[in-house]
Amino acid sequence: MTSEHSASAPRRPSRRPSRLRRRVRLVGWSALSALALVVLGFVMWASTPYPAERGPVIDVWANDAIAVEYLPEGILMTPTVGGGDAEGTGLVFVPGARVQAHAYMHQLSGVVEQHGATVLITEPTLNLAFFDTRTLADFTTAAPEVDRWFVGGHSLGGVRGCLMTPGSDAAGLVLFGSYCAGDIADSGLPVLSIAGENDALSTPAIIEENAGLLPADAVFVTIEGANHASFGDYGPQSGDGERSITSEQMRAELTALLGEALAG
């Protein structure tokens, strides 16, 4: 006979839910920690660009024919003497991925000095053009006296330049060792695409493969002896080919090509 005072022994609450919660938290914190490390690593990588060579930048600053200003829009180079055949025309130029904006000052200064053009070199967030969502109109405020603007860039900067043209007042597009990722064949824009013969990153073959994305009358030029890094002054670039052209020779080539394009 069962006693009226007898009762089943109380059960201890299961600890499985609490253990499960701890495991979920552990996995969650581990995932967040891993993500934080990835983000931190990416930011550190992007924040260490190829630095500009000091000498060519000093040469631009010392050139009495060029005025240099550092503005929120970027690095502005303007002619100090009027009368050039590209006077009143400007170029908004987007640097390549992880390349310091100053690295392009010397190569682009010739068209300012010899043709009277205005050049604005942008300084993208984290040194990566795709993180800079500003439009062409956001940059042209740097020089309101200029009434005709081209846009362009080097490598990834050129891809970004292509994306800036639709719906803008761009007068033309200039690509340095680059190509468009989207179709602008029907845009009617004048396009100058310059490749380096020894460019092992944006090779002449790759540029030719993507030529159909540009207007049919786009002008293609290959500079002999130039590699990918020749379009700026920032030293050798990983994965690039060998160059056999000096910085001054490259500047002369680019000045002639840009002068013809911007004055046209």
TrEMBL record:
Entries under InterPro entries matching the protein: AB_hydrolase_5, AB_hydrolase_fold
What are the GO MF terms of this UniProt record? Answer: hydrolase activity
Q: Does the keyword tRNA processing apply?
A: no
Its transmembrane ranges are: 26-46
**Gene3D superfamilies reported in the protein's UniProt record:** alpha/beta hydrolase (3.40.50.1820)
- Residue ranges of the Alpha/beta hydrolase fold-5 domain? 91-250
Give any Pfam family that matches. Answer: Abhydrolase_5
Q: Which UniProt keywords apply?
A: Membrane, Transmembrane, Transmembrane helix
Q: What is this protein called?
A: Pimeloyl-ACP methyl ester carboxylesterase
Question: Which organism encodes this protein?
Answer: Microcella frigidaquae
